[in-house]
Amino acid sequence: MAENVESKENQNGRHQEVGHKSLLQSDALYQYILETSVYPKEPEPMKELREITANHPWNIMTTSADEGQFLSMLLKLINAKNTMEIGVYTGYSLLATALALPHDGKILAMDINRENYELGLPVIKKAGVEHKIDFREGPALPVLDEMIQDGKYHGTFDFIFVDADKDNYINYHKRLIDLVKIGGVIGYDNTLWNGSVVAPPDAPLRKYVRYYRDFVLELNKALAADPRIEICQLPVGDGITLCRRLT
Amino acid sequence: MAENGEKAENQAGRHQEVGHKSLLQSDALYQYILETSVYPKEPESMKELREITAKHPWNIMTTSADEGQFLNMLLKLINAKNTMEIGVYTGYSLLATALALPHDGKILAMDINKENYELGLPVIQKAGVAHKIDFREGPALPVLDQMIADGKYHGTFDFIFVDADKDNYINYHKRLIDLVKVGGVIGYDNTLWNGSVVAPPDAPLRKYVRYYRDFVLELNKALAADPRIEICQLPVGDGITLCRRIS
Questions:
Q1: ipTM of the predicted structure?
Q2: What is the CATH number of the domain that holds B93?
């Protein structure tokens, strides 16, 4: 999904450039939030990682600074200690997570691309939190299936963040619902898919946006209908749906 | 601040009618969130209270359904038991809170207007959670000052929600920062003030929007600069800033 950084103008359905990508009524409002409440409080390592990532050709995939701040607060509020992340890219949300967990916190982080992770790893090391991360290169489903089979991992995760291939979210969900603890949270990223969830049928959408949109629409319906969770779909970043496991 | 429910058309800076008031890029996107993730999961009692409130002339003051759902989830995630609410109106966020707390949970709820509270009270009673609520009619500052002077209330609140007179938020904050526990959360509502925080100087704003805007802008700066809290400003509803006390 290689995308070059392009002009700020928002073509219909096109994800905007890093730092200007939001679901809000204006970019001005989004910048206000970033400049008033996010950037002044952003930890130095996160700023550094954000800047490194902004130079990368696939940078639209990165977690935004406001989302990083939200994840950080959420993790502290729920006293998370054992977490999982599916989809790492250069590690912005991974770093946010690692900074939020206690010294003995643990993160199982999976991504098909190790190179991108290694781009951000020096910053994570400098921040002194690399020891919390167990990075596995490769697709997540086989790892999840093995954990399910093993039997020892049921209900052992406080928080799981999914920011990966949208056509597999429903497949991830089938496993994660057992791996997250009761009362724990699964967060699915990009569930508002650049607002394209409400684009009219004739709207000019980029191919990948249109392709994955169906999966996102289906996921949203499935999560709302799942009696094992309570949900909350927040318009932070590209839309995060928090799912709290009930049973 | 009496406002009649009016057409959905959004004049610059004017709060829109109940159910269509958001900071998002389109009303269609907001409706999508409500219809996909909020309404299907909304408890019966909250639906009922929302409908009663929609008929009230001051209904733009009400907490929106997506915000109610978010508060409800947040309270469960932090295992809140002892909370406070400043600004009740007909009680939608109060009901969301009462439903989220355990059976022995407690809410100190303050509003200058008892009549509006009594409009929603029958629904709260029917839901079986009225016993958790201690409602005090009158301004909140004297109550807070008394609690501070008493000395027994420092750090006793898990969560405090402020949805009241914007020109007093900073004054509330000076007291609440001692009353909320370390690690607890204060939530300030309407901190994006209908997006007017970024309206150009010549934008046609309603008098009350323009008047309170300065207070909102000052509050946002003050919260970001306050070293005793970590903040997160979410574009839910009219903007909620969560403040986690760290010292």
A1: 0.92
A2: 3.40.50.150
